[in-house]
Amino acid sequence: MHPTLSLSLPQDLDRALLIGRVWRPAPINGPSVVVVRGGQVFDITRFAPTTADLFERGDAVDVVRTAPGELLGTIHALLAGELGLQLLAPCDVQAIKACGVTFAVSLLERVIEEQAGGDASKAAEVRGMINELIGTDLAEIQPGSEGAMKLKAELQRRNAWSQYMEVGIGPDAEVFSKSQPMSAVGFGADIGLHPASVWNNPEPEMVLAVNSAGRVVGATLGNDVNLRDIEGRSALLLGKAKDNNGSCAIGPFIRLFDDGFSIDDVRSASVSLRIDGDDGFVLEGVSHMREISRDPLDLVGQTYGAHHQYPDGFMLFLGTMFSPIKDRDTEGGGFTHHLGDVVSISTPALGTLVNTVRLATDIAPWTFGTRALYRNLAERGLLSAPH
Question: Beta-strand (E) ranges in the chain?
Answer without folding.
Answer: 18-24, 30-37, 40-43, 70-74, 86-88, 95-100, 174-179, 190-193, 200-201, 204-210, 216-224, 226-227, 248-256, 270-276, 282-288, 314-317, 342-347, 351-359
